[in-house]
Amino acid sequence: MNPEPLGNRIVLLPGDGIGPEIGAAATKILRALGDFEVTEQPIGGASIDQHGTALTDEVLDVCRNSDALLLCAVGGPKWDTTDLDAPRPEQGLLGLRKGLGLFANLRPVRPSEALLDASPLRRERIEGTDLLVVRELTGGIYFGDSGRDGDRAHDDCAYTVDEIERISRVAFEAAIERRGQVTSVDKANVLETSRLWRETVTRLAPEYGEVELDHLLVDNAAMQLVSRPADFDVIVTENLFGDILSDEAAMLTGSLGMLPSASLGEKGPGLFEPVHGSAPDIAGQGIANPLATFLSVAMMLRYGLGMHDQASRLDAAVDAALADGLRTPDLSGGEGTREVGTGEMTDAVLAKL
Description:
- The protein is of the alpha/beta class.
- It has twelve helices and 14 strands.
- The chain has two domains: 1-105 and 259-353, Isopropylmalate Dehydrogenase (3-Layer(aba) Sandwich), CATH 3.40.718.10; 120-253, Isopropylmalate Dehydrogenase (3-Layer(aba) Sandwich).
- The chain has a ten-stranded mixed beta sheet, with helices on both faces. It has a two-stranded antiparallel sheet with strand order 6-7.
- The longest helix has 16 residues, at 161-176.
């Protein structure tokens, strides 16, 4: 987390659908921000078409030897199949996570001032929200033993102290760079894994004395996220809870097209990507929203390359373009706004930079 500047070698993984369009836009942003070496590689459906697999060993090796990865989008109906043996685009993303040991998913939620009225919550409730969900990505019920025996099914949830410690450290270190508050979310009143989770996070907290730690049960956390979102700083939680809460928190902004994310490991390059999908229905039309990808670039600069000043400049440029009333079709319009396409929005952000 928050390394010293590591280098400038970035692997761009455009993927499918609108991926190549927003990837090209992101490359323009990178060129404006610094001297980056950008190498483009196939993943997802594009890789299946070229190589018969969603992620080749060669591409994985290139990724391992880079400083950061920018993934745009994968998937689409072209590769939908009921054949369990057929390659699927999503296997490329899963292969990257496994191959690079990416165990921490970071999902920031910071609604732009210009888009506050797009939130499903009242403006006064969402105003001031700036939180970060830190989700454990490689353990828990998604990776436990599972199966069926007649009319009975099971999915086992397991965590080790080491797994909890490493994700907790990511959260504490992120809080140091933010407002100094960590909320750990569990279900310690019911689940043994959650009791181990709470014990471990609590034991680790004194090492980060400047950070305030509190605990919430997951059902209470889900309610608090919509009743007082601006009170949260960093939320850390296990895989299943994090999957659900990060999506809930994301919808506070009112636009999936505005959300970035990062997946980090203990060493090696991080993976940065917009939360939205490949949107094949609008691919090639020049109307895709590139802002989530730009914000993912900002996360890459901040958390992957240690370039905090450039990251803040890019965040501010996105806010400024929106404040000027520019909106891609996925964003709600309104008085004083003007609908633009991918290219014009990119040019506007470049001008603000």
